[in-house]
Amino acid sequence: MLTQRETLEIACPLCAKIHRYSMKIEKTIVVGFGSRERQWTFTRLFTCPVKNEDFQALIRIQQGSNERIDNIEIEKKISL
What we know:
By secondary structure, the chain is mostly beta strands. It is built from no helices and 5 strands. The strands form 2 sheets. Strands 1-2-5 form a 3-stranded antiparallel beta sheet, with no helix packed on it.
């Protein structure tokens, strides 16, 4: 299994600031899984650190050819 970390920047709908979060993506390389890339779209709950209220954000993740996304985890807020 391959673990990849990325930084997500989200424009907060509650306070209009940009918040950054650390995201962990777990993938498996699968030979013969497919030769085309896919884009996965999903919704996650985040907490605005300024107002301490939850909001939903739509996230898009690119899946490469011969990859299978097994898990996506938002680990922590890394800045306001």
